[in-house]
Amino acid sequence: MSKPIYILNGPDLNLLGEREPEIYGTDTLDSIRQQVEAHATDAGHKVDFRQTNGEGDLIDWVQEAREKASGVIINAGAYTHTSVALLDALLTLDIPVIEVHLSNPFKREEFRHHSYVSPAATGLICGLGAQGYLRAIDALIELFNNS
Ligand code: DHK
């Protein structure tokens, strides 16, 4: 069995469903996890889906992914816009990384237009809500198949 795809979610994403639904949609994080797991399983892949409010946890998980993951899908929440430490951790990976955002940060406040994750990402999917996670799985599988 190949290594799992790590799906790493940052701060406040545990509140999906309640938090600004007009921006982030009404799906809960648990419902997104179920959709993603079913989608990956159908395609013959395993996922390890996690959420934390801590910057250090995200960095530890990215470091763990160096050995244990086949690819990483990351929605770093607000750390996207603040964390050089997360960028440095992501730059150590030699597996594909897809950055995901439920909303389209480029349509929002100026401070959300800059991402510290993007320079380390193979690709970026934003503005598609929960569907973005499913498209990120598809993108990773395509990348695995082409490598
Ligand atoms: C989630 C957050 O929590 C924000 O801080 C980002 C991102 C956008 C999202 O759209 O998924 O700015």
Kindly state the number of beta strands: 5
Describe the largest sheet: 5 strands, parallel
Question: Beta-strand level of the residues, as a percent range?
Answer: 15-25%
Helix proportion range:
25-40%
Strand order of the largest sheet: 2-1-3-4-5
Listing every helix as H and every strand as E from the N terminus to the C terminus, the arrangement reads EHHEHEHEEH
CATH superfamily: Dehydroquinase, class II
- Uncertain segments: none
Task: Give the structural class.
Answer: alpha/beta
Describe the SSE topology.
Elements: E1 5-9, H1 21-24, H2 29-42, E2 47-51, H3 55-68, E3 71-75, H4 84-90, E4 97-101, E5 123-126, H5 131-146
Bound molecules: 3-dehydroshikimate.
Question: Could you characterize what this model shows?
Answer:
The chain has 147 residues and is α/β, with parallel strands linked by helices. It has a single domain (5-146), classed as Rossmann fold (3-Layer(aba) Sandwich), CATH 3.40.50.9100. 37% of the residues lie in helices and 16% in strands. It has five helices and five strands. The protein has helices at 21-24, 29-42, 55-68, 84-90, 131-146, and strands at 5-9, 47-51, 71-75, 97-101, 123-126. Strands 2-1-3-4-5 form a five-stranded parallel beta sheet, with helices on both faces. Helix 4 links the parallel strand 3 (71-75) and strand 4. Helix 2 packs parallel to helix 5 (131-146) and helix 3 runs parallel beside helix 4. It starts with a strand and ends with a helix. The mean pLDDT is 97. 3-dehydroshikimate (DHK) is lined by residues 12, 75, 77-78, 80, 101-103, 105, 112. 3-dehydroshikimate binds next to loops.
